[in-house]
Amino acid sequence: MEKTYNIQQVSKITGLSTHTLRYYEKIGLLNEVSRDENGYRQYREADISWIDFLIRLRVTGMPIHKMKQFSDLRSQGESTVASRRELLEDHRENVIEQLQQMQKYLGNIEEKINHYKNLERDH
Q1: Is 2 domain-assigned?
Q2: Where do the coiled-coil regions begin and end (predicted)?
Q3: pTM of the full predicted structure?
Q4: Which residues have a Cβ under 8 Å from the Cβ of 94 and sit 6 or more positions away?
């Protein structure tokens, strides 16, 4: 029998609050979480893996509505593989742009640090 986890355990494992887990289920990001005879959520390893993927998407700046779009495509099955890939490719481009912008900002910070080091050295 497959091991299951309650919402508190999944919250600890993933770092997401129970509120966020319930919200993700409510908006359809988590749509296959089973329930026990008392109506309590029972998460499987596959659910936790999916949640981890959603976290990675969110951390890299994917908006919730795009995550929902990806989740909807995923629930439609194999026929949506190309659409899911395209969505991820678009997101990858956004992440690359963000990284380039962050590199630029980092360069600006480095310049300012060097400016202050030179000022300190001159005094």
Answers
A1: no
A2: 92-122
A3: 0.82
A4: 61, 62
